[in-house]
Design a protein that fits this description.
The chain has eleven helices and ten strands. The chain is α/β, with parallel strands linked by helices. Bound molecules: D-malate (MLT).
């Protein structure tokens, strides 16, 4: 009898510890971060900096998988519908808070089917033109857009991408009609802007700063409330007649809904440590941005930001029409 009881207690104890054992060993294989935009673009740049630093902390490769299309909603869906085991994550930005309004037939619910890990960085944006575009400055550009420049081509990463949201805000603020040219990310869009195939973009400094410094594209304005250190001579749109114009690309990491809490907390801890990495900080600074403070690289902070952003964008997107 004693033997049977001992075996039963031992079996029960193993059953109780088995799941935590799996989580204690996490990660036991490479982790994939899905970037729902083409390689070489601004979100990809942020993701690769974070992945390099998290690899050092987790002791497993953190790999990047680029899945472009539909403003990022395709790649985000792959993560929303992935196994909640901590091995497939999403790194993207404010766009995720607009997908519910812009894509009513999504196979997933952005506000419910993710498990927040934490915020990463808040990237300024720039309104930039091909280098031979006629207007010499932002004032002339805004006038041109209402006249000869009506219908100017405007590169984005697709409906709902932050480059698209910036274009919607610009149209709402000026009444200017833009001919939107969607790409699988603003990496390929930048190639066409530098090549002169499109007229304008509103893109993150992580993609535009180096091209501006190289004289490959023309900077008209920044979309932040105040000028930014790496482009001190570039005025804000808010000070150029578009009062209150402000948009930045806050980036974050999400896991699928149902990811075990110990894994989520391990990922948030790793993200917080990655954001103190001197190489990451230096590289981000050179691209016009900075990592968030540790208390923002947490699930609670991301949940709060996400909910507030849904409210902000739902009005603009419902007024402007969905697609
Ligand atoms: C966007 O939302 O515009 C995308 O982030 C651009 C990109 O990362 O390719």
């Amino acid at each position: 009898m004693k033997t049977l009881l001992t075996v039963a207690l031992a079996t029960a104890a193993m059953a109780l510890t088995a799941p935590t054992f799996a989580q204690d060993a996490y990660p036991s294989k490479p982790v994939t971060i899905v970037v729902p935009a083409a390689a070489g673009g601004p979100s990809d740049t942020v993701a690769r900096l974070v992945a390099e630093a998290m690899t050092r902390d987790l002791g497993q490769q953190v790999l990047i998988e680029n899945v472009g299309g539909a403003g990022g909603s395709l790649g985000a869906g792959q993560v929303a519908q992935a196994e909640p085991d901590g091995y497939k994550l999403l790194l993207y930005h404010v766009a995720v808070s607009t997908f519910g309004a812009l894509y009513p037939d999504l196979a997933y619910k952005p506000g419910e089917d993710f498990s927040s890990v934490g915020l990463v960085t808040d990237v300024p944006m720039t309104l930039v033109g091909r280098k031979d575009l006629e207007p010499a400055n932002v004032g002339a550009l805004l006038t041109w857009l209402k006249g000869d420049g009506a219908g100017a081509t405007f590169g984005t990463a697709g409906v709902g991408a932050v480059s698209d949201l910036c274009g919607r805000l610009l149209t709402e603020a000026t009444g200017a009609e833009l001919t939107v040219v969607p790409y699988k990310g603003t990496g390929p869009a930048m190639t066409d802007l530098v090549g002169g195939q499109i007229d304008l973009m509103c893109d993150q400094t992580t993609n535009t700063a180096n091209q501006i410094k190289a004289g490959e594209i023309k900077p008209y304005a920044v979309t932040t409330a105040a000028p930014i250190a790496i482009l001190p001579d570039v005025p804000t749109l808010a000070s150029s007649g578009l009062d209150g114009f402000e948009i930045t690309a806050w980036h974050a990491i999400w896991a699928p809904k149902g990811t075990p809490e110990p894994i989520r907390q391990r990922l948030s801890a790793s993200l917080q440590k990655a954001l103190t990495d001197p190489v990451l900080i230096e590289r981000m600074a050179g691209l016009g941005t900075a990592p968030v403070a540790a208390d923002l690289a947490t699930p609670a902070a991301l949940d709060q930001r996400f909910q507030s952003e849904i409210g902000r964008w739902s009005k603009l997107l419902s007024d402007a029409g969905q697609q």
